[in-house]
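Discussion board: Methods & Data

I've been asked by a reviewer to show the raw model output for two of the constructs in my manuscript, not just the figures. I'm not sure how much to include, so I'm pasting the format here to get opinions. Each protein appears as its amino acid sequence followed by a line of discrete structure tokens. Is this the kind of thing reviewers expect to see in a supplement, or should I convert it first? Here is construct A:
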Amino acid sequence: MTSINANIGGMSCAACAKNIERVLKKQSGVKRGEVNFGTEKLALEFDESIVSFEEIEKAIKRAGFELYINENTTKRKESEIEKLRFTFKWSLIITTPLFVFSMLPMIFYSLDIHVIPHNLDPLNHPGWNGLIQLLLTLPIMWLNRGIFYRGFSKFFTGSANMDSLIAKGTMVAFLFSIYITIENFFLIGTSLAATMEEIIFMDRNQFYFETVAVILTLIVLGRYLEAKTKGGTSEAIRKLIGLSPKTATIIRDGEEVVVPVGDVVVGDIIRVKPGEKLPVDGIIVQGTTNVDESMLTGESMPVNKNEGDMVIGASINKNGSIRYEATQIGKDTVLAQIVKLVEDAQNSKAPIARVADKISGYFAYVVLVIAIVAGVAWFMAGYDFAFIMVVVVSILLIACPCALGIATPTAVMVGTGKGAENGILIKGGESLEIAHKVKTVVLDKTGTITEGKPHVTDIITKGSYSADEILLLAASAEKKSEHPLGEAIAKHGVAKFGKLLETGLFNSITGQGIHAVVDGKDILIGNKKMMDEHFDISTHDADSLANEGKTPMYVAINQKFAAIIAVADIIKPTSVTAIKQLKGMGIEVVMITGDNKRTALAVARQAGIDNILAEVLPQDKAESVKKLQSNGKVAMVGDGINDAPALVQADIGIAIGGGTDIAIESAEIVLMRGDLRDVVLAIYLSKQTMRNIKQNLFWAFSYNAAGIPIAAGLLYLFGGPLLNPIIAALAMAFSSISVLLNVLRIKRLNLRVDEK
């Protein structure tokens, strides 16, 4: 099965997207063909043994659309926006004198002013007046010819869209105005022009050329503003792509060489000076520095990096000169994967969008039926053709479902982009929609609630040595240890003293501890089993430490019991805040862990969690999540390989960014910072985006529900005005722009946790 993401050109509304999907469904071998109108992208899956890509491309072109692969989307968007700007500018330049020419006579007549040249007076020579209006209208129709081509071609192939409605309405008005113009020359009276009495009596001086021109100008204005707005919603992706530097300084044959980033290969040693961006991902082999990763993770504070630490391409080297080995290049870098995640998310549909798509797909035909029924009803009521035409054109124009079509995809696009800017990668519209329904959040303990690495928490002295003396000796003894607890003690000592003491004898005793000689002193560090062979170490301190989820390490110096060093996987400083915020949102928080119940209870107590699932084997985590789903939507947050099945089982899988690739691949949402507060932000962003979508859909539905009856003449029946087609076109354009403006409110959301 082949998967391709492509760009689609030529769409004017959500019905176009639905039509393309309908065409793809008819193609044998196409498993999936999902079009997002907001991003103008196609997610395609097909079996090459049944259908070729060229055949699919031809089918889409026959439907009147263009397919673009590996194109410069930004340049095409800019070209389309410039084309719309040009069309609008010249449409406005020509429409203005046409509108003035057609409206001034009525204004002058009402003021009893007679300054209009006799041959151009619509009451004296309407034929000539109409002919001039026709000549001014033709260039505008030519500038906007794409609307008529797309509209009529789609209508007659059974795939009517917004252009079909506009084309039908304006063409009816245009042809009727031509008929009146010809009638004034040849059909009324016997002279070249009709008499004033005939004209006034037969109401044959009412042209709709200016209506056609104004409608087309308003339509292209709306599309120009829509294109600019939609272009702005992809700003997150453009910013991410723009982060990567264009060149890299690599070490080859002992010399520094500047090469394009595309020429860097895995294994190259790259030199980065202070203030420069890192070209690709890699591991530091020389030097220390602080790296600003805020553009990728949203974390404002620079991160300290030492030899052996991983660095991310496009982050900024702040203050140290470093050399690092390239490990990930091109599409494999973290930045490239983030861009792909965001693009895929913006190309996906939220389930709520399918309702709007289905309505938009059939709306053009429903509206046409309504327009015909209304026209027949007014005809049977005795009204003339001109009146009926106004009603029909107004219905066709005001009922365009553009606002309905853009309500959801643009909100998903902006919402996922906003998340990406803040280090929250939401993989699709469905994930964005489901997140706001979550009732239970399940948190893995190690690496999610806690740091995932042991730290020294307590030093309890039992002899004449001070806590600092104990730490220096113990850290020096453990610096050769490979055990995680010993490494934690050594790391804590280095952080406090910088340089440790030299170690003489060193012996690791499997399952018990170590024996070493440091500064002439005999050092034993190990568990209770090891110490029981030498000393009586009965102490309540060890029991209380264990009850707090800490592991006691016993220290003896020169055959005398000297201290207890407690080591624990400490809770992240932000975890307590995040859990409190989740509870405040009415969400149940559950901790799941393979650790023993005593340790789990201790961590849960510190984190503020009431519900725990302890001693759960990795293969049983998914089953535990499944049981919790009986009470509503469940989000699972984890970072390890053993969390992957549970992440898949949950309604929403949320992976900590510092976790394993498998966990990240299995999740629907990835938190780049590894901060549990971002779980709160992801749910908050989902709630706000869905609220925005529902507002958009409500107003779009309400607009059409109220607009169609008014356009059909409901107010006129009760003594009110008849809706002018120009006002109908203006209302239609305004509805789309109002939806877009509402969507852009998402970009202004405050996603700073500390200000919540």
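Construct B, same format:
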Amino acid sequence: MSLALCLLAGRAALRLAPFPELHAFRDRPAGFALHDRNGRLLRVFPAQDGARREWVALQEIPAGALRVFLLAEDRRFYFHPGVDPAAVAAAVFRNARAGRTVSGASTITMQLARMIRPRAPGMRGKIREALDALRLEARLSKNEILELWINNIPFGSNIEGIAAMSRARFARAPDHLDDARAALLAVIPRRPALFDPAREPETAVAAALALSRRAGLGLEEAALIEAAADAAPGALTELKHPFFAPHFTDRIARMKNEAGIPGAARATLDLDLQLFAERRLASELLLTADSRITNGSIIVIDNFSGEVLAYVGSASWHDVEASGQIDGVRVLNQPGSTLKPFLFAQALEKGFAPNDVLPDIPTVFGMVEAYSPANFDRRFNGPVRFRVALASSLNIPAVYLLDALGVAAFEEYLVALGFDSVAASSADHGLGLALGNAEVSLEELARAFAVFPRGGLALDLRFELDPPGGAQNRSARRVMSEESAWLITDILADEPSRFLGFGQAPIMRTDFPSIFKTGTANQFQHILALGASPRYTVGVWMGNFSGETVIGRTGSSIPALIAADLLKALESRNPSPAGFPLPPRAGSLREALVCSLSGMPATGACRGVAREWVFADSGLAPCSWHGGGGIGGASALGFGDEAAWATQEWMEAEFRAARFPPEYQAWLAERFRQGTVAQAAPGAARIRLPVSGAVFHFSHSLPPESQAIRVETSGFSPGARVFSNGAFQGLLGGSGVFVLPLRPGAQLIVVEDENGRDSVEIMVY
């Protein structure tokens, strides 16, 4: 009885005595293997201390492989208390007979104790190791000891644990280890330099065969030779050292290290789609190298779950000359016109409507910091409906909207959509923000673009799959009204409405519902495309990380082609549900027939009529640009039938019959378009150009008579008087434009007639 109590007391003392080394050992960081959504290995990361060490649960290791290791190292593991007296006695006998140490008696628990706290040499160290083994047995279950040991066995080559070694030698996860490969691994720890099949395959096979015979495993030599062949340095290289999607996998590793989260089981990435995206980018770059387009990035998102399905950070991670290790998905670049859908969405939220007419005429915005944008083709289209202005990506209407909404308000809207980069640079934008002078990332663009097919709901990106039974991380945060999201989607999907800016644009035509938006940085350093179907969103950037200007063309159709091909591949495998764009909320929008020119409800005198969505509660007056009433003589077109309307002969008749607002006077006259201009309301006549505060430079190297200022007016009648610093200069012509000689110094320009008077002050240096 007293002996039993002593044993219990001793075990309690061993269990309760401090053992900080054990806690530190169990907390050692482990690397991890990252798989794609379908279980294919993407990359293996070492532990933070540099060791190739992974953790695998004991139940994930085949019973046969565990049996091999137990028979190789400690066949009575489950029956001894940490020290095996029978093994000690046998070792003493063998060593005494040989006259030297030829056999040890270390159990698995003693080996683990030595890993946790390396022992000093000699008998004293051996005794401490045995005591530590007893302490482990008092604290941990047998399976906990076995799991801790098998995950930390040193195999040499900076590899620790069965999981890392199985992958390094046989390109297999430990749950796929067979007995032959387990035997080849089990003999390595005794003499890593001699028994490693990657170094000495013949010796390793002989050692494994001896183990099999000694332990009664029944392994055939041929099976061991075949298994050892997989360990050869040149065998299964891609599987042993996978390096897929390096920017994506690097990002996950950083996220996990920062959060202190153990290794991931599955990433959201689809390796097949990833490789397809990489190939498509590489093939296009081969054709564009002469244009200094040497790099590119792609991100593909599932709109329903936020899962990132493909992530190409650069054309090649290994291309040092092209800075291939830079992650282009996260790099900040000017996005060009890809910001316009968000600007037009905010305009809808602030009271604009799809049938509103926006001016596409020469315009100077601002005063001291004057800004005069132009369209890409250097043409001015006069009055353009809101729908057409966005679908055709016209610049001046976009700046007009931003000027009306306010730069600060649009910046706040972009930040709410997830553009954190805009918040960091909000003081630098001005009205150029409408054309994309802010620097944003491709990730931010794609994530925000997905808001449109999501009906105005924000999207949280996900890089790892939820564990079985885990909750889907789907954001329900509303950042845009359903109506605005639906209308922008409808406009971007409206092929005829983009005819004015893009012509037929066959690249953007797909067999499934889709929307696209392209963009070019203002100095042509970068070209981008965003594309979306109901289920997927794709973002593509192309250019170079050095910021060199693309030569000869903007080429935004190139990334658009890649985006379209990726959407086609996705839709062919897993089609989006029907009903895109998402239907608007019942009663919030209604369909109306509007004049193609004025956007107002059409009358019998409007020859071009289009169907348009308007807000249900909007009270619209009939078209005031054309006379007559009712819809009787109108020719009704479908949504955005701009291509058909613009090519009809009766377009000229439409212009002749129209009475344009005063601001279109110069545009009509100087482009030889027929049509009259409505008289301005009393006091509404104004000088459109130049703006007050504008600064001009007088060149002394040019003849004075060849230097002049264009004075453009709105609402003044022909014959209105023009003055400069009080001196009469002449009379306005029918176009409302006057050419004023440029003279150094301050100039007060005045235009007046019976309709009113307006003045601006400029400076000429």
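Answer (T.O., handling editor elsewhere):
This is acceptable in a supplement if you add a one-line summary per construct. For B, something like: The chain has 27 helices and 27 strands.
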